[in-house]
Amino acid sequence: MLICSFDKTNEILNEKSQEHSWLRTRIFSNRRGKASVLNDLAQLAKNEILVFTDANTKFEKDALLKLVSKFSDAKIGGVCGRLDLEEPIANFDRTNREKLYWMYETHLKNLEGDLGILIAANGGIYAIRKELFIKFPVGEAITDDLYQTFGVLNQGYNFLYASDAIASEEVSQEIMMEFRRKVRFAATNFQTLKIFRGLLLQKKILISYALWSHKIIRWFVPLLLILLLLTI
Known about the structure:
The chain contains 8 helices and 5 strands; from the N terminus they run H-H-E-E-H-E-H-E-H-E-H-H-H. It has 232 residues and is of the alpha+beta class.
C-alpha cells in the first residue's frame, strides 16, 4: 500500500474531523494523480457548490461565505475569489517580481469578472456549480483551474470575480522555482486550450476577445519578440 502523505497531514485531518462534525475527510491509499482524486471528490460531494483551493492557500474567515453568496443568480456558474500574494521575510529573492505581476493579473480578473467572462480562475480560491463540473482528463496534463473555468463558460454560464472573498499565499522564495512553475503551466495551458478550442471563436464575442487578449497573445509574446528582432 502506498502512503500518499509523508508528513502528518492525514493525522491532522483525522483529528480535525473528530473535533468538527461538519468536516469530512477522505484519505486515499494509492497515488493516482490530482485529476483522479478531484474527479472522485466531486462525485462524493452532496452540495450544489464545489469549492477548490490549494494546499498552501489560507482563507480569511468570511471568504467562503462571500464566495458562495454570489451564486444567488442562476446565470452564475462560477466565482473566483481574490488571492493576495505575500513575500517571505527570510531568504527571499528580491528579483522575484511575482507579486507585482499578480497585481496586474488581479486587475484584469476584476474587469473580466464585472462582465461575467472571467477567463481564468486562480486555483487557490474559486467555486463552481456541481452540475457544471466536467471530469478532468486523467491521461492528459491540463491546468485544472483553467479547465473548469473554460468548462463553465463553454456551457453558457457567467464566471464572476469576488474581490471581497480573500485568500493568501506566499510566493516562491527563489526566482528559479517560479520560473519552473511558469514553464509547467505554459505546457498545460496549451493542452487545456486544445480541449476548449471552440472558445477561440465563441458566439459570445467578449469571451473570445478576453481569451485572445488576456491569454493567447501573451503566451506567444516570446515568439513575437523573436520575429520582431529578425525583421529589424
